[in-house]
Design goal:
Number of domains: 2
Strand content: 15-25%
Order of helices and strands: HHEEHHHEHEEHE
Largest sheet: 4 strands, antiparallel
Distance between the termini: 40 Å
Strand order of the largest sheet: 4-5-3-6
Shape: elongated
Keywords: Cell inner membrane, Cell membrane, Membrane, Transmembrane, Transmembrane helix
Protein name: Protein MgtC
Radius of gyration: 27 Å
Family: Belongs to the MgtC/SapB family.
Number of helices: 7
Structural class: alpha+beta
InterPro entries: MgtC-like_C, MgtC/SapB/SrpB/YhiD_fam, MgtC_SapB_SrpB_YhiD_N
Function: Virulence factor required for growth in low Mg(2+) medium and for intramacrophage survival. May be involved in regulating membrane potential by activating Na(+)/K(+)-ATPase.
Length: 238
Amino acid sequence: MTALFASPLPEFVNSAISLVVAFVLGTMIGAERQYRQRTAGLRTNVLVAVGAAAFVDLGMRLEGTRGAVSTVAYVISGVGFLGAGVIMKEGMNVRGLNTAATLWCSAAVGAFAGADFPLEACFVTAAVLSGNTLLRPLVNAINRVPIDESQTEATYEVQITVPAEHAGPARDLLVERLEAAHYPVGGTEVVERGEETVEVVATLVATAVDSAELDAVVAGLERDERISHATWSVQTAD
């Protein structure tokens, strides 16, 4: 912070100012997260920002610029582990990625403050708040646009339900019909759905499909007397 003043400040005052800047900016980021009831809210973001500022400031006081650079590297990796703790996988969905990214950005704000770059810390804070607030309408607008399967990159699976004794021939038929429609199969799996019923799942190599073509394949499979049910599903890629 000495660059903001005409004369050098005592080290403890300089450190105090860095921590206050990190606290205030971390509060701004955390308040928005708390308002939206995210897992990592006000206190977590403040603590991350203040902690990053404290470590970077300590590194600077001990070894100058070289110490700050070394400390920042450890802060980045350390906050990465912390962010991983708020990411949760629920079935095919992953939650908490935005919260983890926000924590990472809070650490960046604290690192700037600890390295005596308060204006840069403010710029990062403004960018984080803009990303979490101003971009929400755009995200909502994009999510409301109907999905065109031919334009997305995803993992596609076709599932058929058959009696267990017909699993082998049904799998061969499934692969044959998909390859005839020019959708090569990357692999198949047989999943038990009871004592007498199994589900044959084929994963496609293609990452983009024509939904009408897959619908036609599924409809053709359902006309086979051995198959009681056929469908396809998609998991959007990250």
